[in-house]
Amino acid sequence: MKNFDNFNDYDRKENLHFDSQTVHGALGHDPFSGAVSFPIYQAATFRHRGLFESTGFDYSRLQNPTRQELERTMAILERGERAFAFTSGQAANAAVFDLLNPGDEVVLCDDIYGGTFRLGDSPLRKQNLTFTYVDMCDPANVEKAISAKTKMLFLETPTNPMMKVADISKIAEIAHAHGLIFVVDNTLMSPYFQKPLTLGADIVVHSGTKFIGGHHDVLAGIVVLKDKEYIDQIQKHLITYGSQLAPQDAWLLIRGLKTLHLRMERHSENAMKIANWLRTQDKVKKVYYAGFEDSQGYDIMKKQCTGFGGMLSFAVESADMVKKILKRVDLIYFAESLGGPETLITYPMTQTHESIPAEIRDALGITDCLLRLSAGLENADDLIADLDQAING
Ligand SMILES: Cc1ncc(COP(=O)(O)O)c(C=O)c1O
């Protein structure tokens, strides 16, 4: 029986399936009242019983019970030792790059989220860090790119927006043979479909704004780690820079996680139906979806993931056609972001990937004809009907 006044009386629920772990979290309930919705501990500071008699919570920049519940739950779901929750995915990535020293190099996948590119392009360049981009679909490219200065490999798989797939285990082998830190941005898959730490990654990052929060109502970032050395450094970064998630927002993520497994299944099912329909349309020139059997990384997806996710991109015949679609979509919202209940259509060229120089975008295929879609939780037939009237109407 649980000791009802102890925040440390939690277990990792290793005997439970993933979908029970999402629902029950770490402690699950409030240890004081038994409340089954973990309370929002909206407190900046905590009273001490006496000298050296802390409750374990001193000041919310250091510890907060609600944030701790979220962080413990994320560590369980991603199979890490420790997780930290940040104000945004950008803040989480900035903390990870803070593990590096001036003069170090990071090798990243070429089709990277625009905000991650922006971090390397300005603030971190000032610290004399080099960001090098390679196509990680072929591990040989990674091996070739590594120099004496390289200290970290950073991967998104599938990538956003081109849905390129890389083999996490193979890149982990390369990283460890060279003594490099291997980071995977797992935002698009969530731990429900892909657990990079079990495949050899050292660190997982998330924009918690997306599938983890799951409702388009909160900004958040998550870092999950295995090694004590990096855990200590990320904790120090968080305490020093003060970029930790606020209790209300942590609660929204705890709530989001309770339905992660159900949502991911529907996102994926809808994306598959929409991707298959788009492929039959004359005005659609190419569809990028990691769940197509003839797609570049299908075999790797089958090996390292348990589903294909809710994201796809497609190219239409002209920029005018893009304009028309974005004006006509109705049920589907023309908006930046992904991973929530409402299906969103995004124009990467002017939105998510605007920071990336035009020549790099063109080489990747992020042209003025490319649209990205985050399949939501609506009925797929309604979504297809909306796309049909927007494309063909
Ligand atoms: C793959 C990926 N990583 C990181 C981020 C940054 O996250 P945030 O917007 O929460 O700062 C995003 C945002 O779109 C993203 O798509």
Key attributes of the depicted protein:
alpha/beta; Aspartate Aminotransferase, domain 1; 12 strands
Task: Describe the protein.
Helices cover 37% and strands 15% of the residues. The longest helix is centred in the C-terminal third of the chain and has 19 residues, at 260-278. It has a domain at 261-392: Alpha-Beta Complex (Aspartate Aminotransferase, domain 1). The protein has 393 residues and is of the alpha/beta class. The strands form 2 sheets. Strands 1-7-6-5-4-2-3 form a 7-stranded mixed beta sheet, with helices on both faces. Strands 8-9-12-11-10 form a 5-stranded mixed beta sheet. It contains 15 helices and 12 strands. The model has no long low-confidence stretch (mean pLDDT 96). The N and C termini lie far apart (62 Å). Helix 7 (168-177) links the parallel strand 4 (150-156) and strand 5. The structure holds pyridoxal-5'-phosphate. Pyridoxal-5'-phosphate binds next to helix 3.
What is the compact description of this entry?
This protein is α/β, with parallel strands linked by helices and 393 residues long. The chain is built from 15 helices and twelve strands. The strands form two sheets. A seven-stranded mixed beta sheet has the order 1-7-6-5-4-2-3, sandwiched between helices. A five-stranded mixed beta sheet has the order 8-9-12-11-10.
Q: Tell me about the biggest sheet?
A: 7 strands, mixed
Unreliable runs: none
> Given this structure, which CATH class of one domain is correct?
Alpha Beta
Query: Main sheet: which strands, in order across?
Result: 1-7-6-5-4-2-3
Broad shape:
globular
